[in-house]
Amino acid sequence: MTPKGRTRAVGYIRVSTAKQADGGASLEAQGAAIRAYCALYAVDLVPVVLDGAEAEFAVDAGWSASNLDRPALQATLAMMQRGEVDAIVVMKLDRLTRSLDDLSTLVKAHFREEDGASLLSVTEQIDTRTAGGRLFVKLIILISEWEREVIGERTSAVMRYLSAQGYYMGGKTRFGRRRAGTMLEDDPLEQATISAAKALRAEGLSLRAVGRELAGRGLSPRQGGKWAPTQVARMVAA
Questions:
Q1: Would you tell me how many other CB atoms lie within 10 Å of the CB of residue 162?
Q2: C-beta separation of 24 from 33 below 8 A
């Protein structure tokens, strides 16, 4: 159901190139669809000022949807933040963004219900002025967050598995191991140092005493210098 009252909105149009006619998504086709939608759903189109000139629509011609750093989009969002308009209207959601993460960012930062700011999409019939429209967008965001968490969990599991198989995963290798191409292998001298430290600790020596004994045997940390108690503690805990 159409909300009561009228909504002030900016029509936002984006094409990858100025002459693009991508399946009817040209500048003219998007503008016509937005005008028809606004006439039907009690939306008043507000002109936008870009580069010192007033225009019917906010147009990003020649800009991809790879990020949100687009001049017309940013100008439109600024108008909404200043309270000059209540909504942004797009012909299709992918004109605004093709990224679920970016959509989530936009909704959380700019299309908040408590601010009265709305997102309207002609093709998907998204209207966050309504409860159904807000629910739909929230579901999209939840799916995006779920996908990101699943990818993170899978990546972590793969990294743990590869690490357990002895693959070098980047960064500094722990004492006792060294890099051999894409794999890790034991460093004989450092492994001997670790064994000696464990044996001394088992005899009841303090961490500092173990460090002194190792130094006396000519066994030093990888970077040289004296053994710190924390270094010895990490070795004997390995």
A1: 13
A2: no
Task: Return d(Cα 132, Cα 83) in angstroms, integer.
Answer: 24
Element (H, E) at 233: helix 229-237
Is residue 219 a contact partner of residue 193, using CB atoms and an 8 Å limit?
yes
Please report which confidence band the pLDDT of residue 25 belongs to, taking 50, 70 and 90 as the band edges: low
* CB-based contact 6:75 (threshold 8 Å): no
Q: How many residues does the chain have?
A: 238
Q: pTM for this structure?
A: 0.59
Q: Which residue has the tokens 């940390």?
A: 221
CA distances from 112 to 63, 80, 98, 145 (A): 26, 11, 20, 18
The CATH fold assigned to 7-147 is Rossmann fold (3.40.50)
Q: Give the C-alpha separation, 34 to 43, whole Å.
A: 10
Q: pLDDT tens across 93-127, in order?
A: 889 988 888 888 888 888 887 778 899 999 988 99
Parse the chain into domains and list their residue ranges.
Answer: 7-147, 177-237
Contact partners, residue 43, CB within 8 Å, separation at least 6: 6, 7, 8, 9, 37, 87, 89, 120
Q: Are 110 and 117 in contact (CB under 8 A)?
A: yes
